[in-house]
Amino acid sequence: MPPELLACLFLALVAVSASGAAAARRHPAPANSTATGNPVYIWPLPKNFTSGTRTLAVDPDLALDPRGPGGGAAAVAEAFERYRSLIFSPWAHAARPASAGYDVATLTVVVASADETLELGVDESYTIYIAAAGGANSIVGGATIEANTIYGAIRGLETFSQLCVFNYDTKNVEVRYAPWYIQDEPRFAFRGLMLDTSRHYLPVDVIKQVIDSMSFSKLNVLHWHIIDEQSFPLEIPSYPNLWKGSYSKSERYTVEDARYIVSYAKKRGINVMAEIDVPGHAESWGNGYPKLWPSLSYMRKIFPFGLFHLGGDEVYTGCWNLTPHVKQWLDERNMATKDAYKYFVLKAQEIAIDLNWIPVNWEETFNSFGESLNPRTVVHNWLGPGVCPKVVAKGLRCIMSNQGVWYLDHLDVPWEQVYTAEPLAGINDTAQQKLVLGGEVCMWGETADTSDVQQTIWPRAAAAAERMWSQLEAISTQDLETTVLARLHYFRCLLNHRGIAAAPVTNFYARRPPIGPGSCFVQ
Amino acid sequence: MPPELLACLFLALVAVSASGAAAARRHPAPANSTATGNPVYIWPLPKNFTSGTRTLAVDPDLALDPRGPGGGAAAVAEAFERYRSLIFSPWAHAARPASAGYDVATLTVVVASADETLELGVDESYTIYIAAAGGANSIVGGATIEANTIYGAIRGLETFSQLCVFNYDTKNVEVRYAPWYIQDEPRFAFRGLMLDTSRHYLPVDVIKQVIDSMSFSKLNVLHWHIIDEQSFPLEIPSYPNLWKGSYSKSERYTVEDARYIVSYAKKRGINVMAEIDVPGHAESWGNGYPKLWPSLSYMRKIFPFGLFHLGGDEVYTGCWNLTPHVKQWLDERNMATKDAYKYFVLKAQEIAIDLNWIPVNWEETFNSFGESLNPRTVVHNWLGPGVCPKVVAKGLRCIMSNQGVWYLDHLDVPWEQVYTAEPLAGINDTAQQKLVLGGEVCMWGETADTSDVQQTIWPRAAAAAERMWSQLEAISTQDLETTVLARLHYFRCLLNHRGIAAAPVTNFYARRPPIGPGSCFVQ
Question: Of A89, A497, A518, which has the smallest distance from its Cβ to B247's Cβ?
């Protein structure tokens, strides 16, 4: 083949490879923002960190050295194995000469407590230290994660995995900008994602994928909106007819499925908050069970998390006046329908509290009769901004999901608006700020099923995740395009690399396909 | 809680649960189409089958009984374990009393040959027999798969897995309509899916997901369009500068990645046909390598499949006349640019054949100088219908990918048009029909990346998969909405259940989200 024939192709090549190099430059290397002002590619951003200038090679046979009362927990060993398989491709052997050795051959994980209880406010803090042997700041080289709980250790493992990057030239997994010292903990205790399995059934394998991806961004509550008026997919053994309200005989969750989901989430430090939305969204509860409340005591056995969501939104009470024997019941008690709504919600709260649950209610309950809600109530905002300030002023706790910014089915909300939504907005009193448990992005399922649920959730849920995890001072920046966007691109590409169908970051409408060829790091 | 308050909710409930039941009826139970005319929920439809009326319970500890020279191959045992984990959820224990026993406790897999060679035309036939002990047609109960090769056994395992359905009432995995006798083999030897990793890089984990889903529909060739003008992601060790044409330093495939993909696909009976598209799509080959052809000999070590795709489409020869030393080279040989295009393609064919590859070329080569192509050439149709008849009339082999029906990035092609596209259309001579190797659906990547590639591929690729696997008489039906649609819905739900983001079937535009709440089986 005469080389001349290829020559004119190469005229274009110089330009193309130059633009390829430019693309690589647009995706700059991780760096310590303190030292150089470059982005730190850890999402969400840790509370405190220092970094250096060394590149360390990580042994593909990285070993776990468990320490402390909780270090030997199976949950720690399992999490280490999960992260090891995310960090290393088993087929990608490093070409490093045996004599060279590795800078990081062991990951020491020190866990102070063996208590595996996962509840709201569990200690998720951790410290990471990574250094080469003989480094300026180290006597013994290697990597260490220290945490008070196994859940803190799991958060630390996620951060460690994000520091480990495969170098395609050396074919080593490397930690750049070492030594690293990271001290981290979340700003809010409740960092949720809601999944709606009533509008579309999501198979267990898909819920597992969502839980995996939540753990990558350190979200810690899966709010499972299990049922709604469209379908009732969950088995309640004491009322076996209930799940006849499922879409089909196979679009269902057995009790064993639900327990498995809870267990799978727990291993990733994620609580499952179930919701039975009453009385406004209960039309699928059919088939002749007038006394449904006892089913809650069965659900208590499935869902150990201390919070339970009782719904309470979008109640249409008009029909109560149109049903003769309900009308009679109301008349006998001299109740208007709004009184009955209140009676219903408060009764449900009582039952939940008797079951040792903290009741969570959508904000309509607070807006309608806030003064009557049980003081333990957590009010779940959704209608708009400004609700949590009113809630915490009354001494109740609040979760923010302002639909204008944190409803993921609102496709016209760009990532910047998700990112800048602040749960503490309008709350200046420190004691009142503590009543804001955090927030939650909501993936309502009318147009989201297995085919598109992940591309609708990500990357915008990650923007909220950093908002809820990272320190306010670090993320309250005015110029997101230059200070945050590259890091969010990077995290979206990380999700893609881990097989998660996260959508392009910069499309104005969420979950739209890429607009043309290009790198993951700029779309 | 006074039951009266719930009563008016129940007014709606009757209607809703009735419609729920209707939805279940729209998703009828599997049945023998011979006996009752109901759909058989196996995709693609097997060649010959008979069924019965019994329901058999399958042991969650189902054991493999490997027989024959190839039965003991690791590939068989691995495939069995894969399918076991698809059939049984480890947490969903059957409630069956121990005394009842199971009808199917062992799967016997008999493989006649231990030869693990996977090449075009490998024997993929298999026979399945499933019966209860003491059944009318059986002496010994259980399930048996017989195949000539391990790849036939793997196809049989897929079919077996589709016959095994979890019953949410009994909590057993069951085979309904037993006894089953199935004899199956594909109509075409080449049933491909093309992935384009140049317009968007697809991480290895994503390619694995695509390979998994291909095996579910019995596709057997992954046509890997690795590079194009936009990026060059593949490592060629002898030309280490080539993959500097990748979008970024991490949007790359190492040689080890490529080998792993080939090996991963082989375990699922899928060949990887690589493509280096020259001379029309080679602008990313840059950085000063005028003699690129030797790189093909390195690629030969990575890609063992006997077919290699040399591209040859969309060549713009105009620039050759504008480049002085190319123009001089042409003038010295008294060549026009079209002569040079021909020279280039034929030279590439020679090199590929010297490397013991069968060259595959896009149809422009045939359209331009078909009489000069090497007789071993496989012509790859794409521009429109009617090409394969001309190709096979000239004695060459053909693969159909008519862009009007089998280009998956053409979003306005509904599943029915994909399904009814027939590779043998216009070819009546039996000998000529044998020259049609099969077909391929093409997933060009301009607007498909990790976020949406699976929802763009599925379910329409499945429509083509049945077209290429199943017998023409069985699938050439006039009323697809009643005879095929329910089965395709079912297969799409199966993909979803296995975690694959297959899109709704009936949306006119492919990969669009569901239009509203509803069952997977009707969307």
Answer: A518
CB contacts under 8 A, A 19-48 vs B, are: 20-21, 23-24, 27
Which of these, B249, B284, B227, lies nearest to A521 by C-alpha position?
B249
- Tokens 């054991």 -> residue: B63
CATH for A190-522? 3.20.20.80
With a cut of 70, say whether residue B372 has pLDDT above it.
yes
* Conformational region of residue A391, where left means phi above 0, alpha means psi within -120 to 50, and beta covers everything else: alpha
Report yes or no: B339 at the A interface, CB cutoff 8 Å: no
The per-residue pLDDT for A280 is: 60
**Interchain pair A447, B290: CB under 8 A:** no
| Backbone φ and ψ of B325, nearest 5° | -75, -20
Q: Quick one: fold of B33-184?
A: Chitobiase; domain 2 (3.30.379)
Res A328: pLDDT:
85
Residues in chain A within 8 Å Cβ distance of B168: 235, 243, 249-250, 252, 254
Active site residues of A: 314
Please name the fold of domain B190-478.
Answer: TIM Barrel (3.20.20)
DSSP-assigned letter for residue A407: B
Domain boundaries in chain A?
33-184, 190-522
Helix (H) or strand (E) holding B433: helix B430-433
Give how far Cα B278 sits from Cα of B232, B296, B313, B348, Å: 13, 12, 8, 9
Residue B452 and residue B463: Cα distance in Å, rounded?
19
Q: Which residue of A has its CA nearest to B281?
A: A9
Torsion, CA B451, CA B220, CA B72, CA B129, rounded to 10:
100
Q: What backbone torsions phi and psi does residue B60 show, to the nearest 5 degrees?
A: -65, -20
pLDDT single digits (tens) A300-329: 999 999 999 999 877 777 777 787 877 888
- Describe the crossing of helices B150-163 and B74-87 by its angle, rounded to 10 degrees: 10
pLDDT tops 90 at residue B31 = no
8 A C-beta contact, residue A164 and residue A183: no
Structure tokens of A336? Answer: 């208007």
Got the DSSP string for B452-501? THHHHHTTHHHHHHHHHHS-HHHH--S-HHHHTHHHHHHHHHHHHHTT--
| C-alpha dihedral, A63 to A68 to A73 to A77, nearest 10° | -10
Q: What ipTM goes with this model?
A: 0.91
Nearest CA in chain A to B340: A5
Residues 6+ apart with CB under 8 A from A280: A311, A312, A313, A314, A315, A316
The predicted-structure confidence for B434-452, as pLDDT tens digits, reads as follows 999 999 999 999 999 999 9
* Residue among A477, A485, A480, A479 nearest A26 (CA): A485
**Mean pLDDT, chain B, whole residue set:** 87
- SS3 assignment, position A1: coil
Which chain A residues touch B497 with a CB distance below 8 Å? 203, 205, 250
A446 contact residues in B (CB cutoff 8 A): 514, 516-517
Q: CB distance A260–B89 less than 8 Å?
A: yes
Residues 300-319 of A with CB under 8 A from B: 319
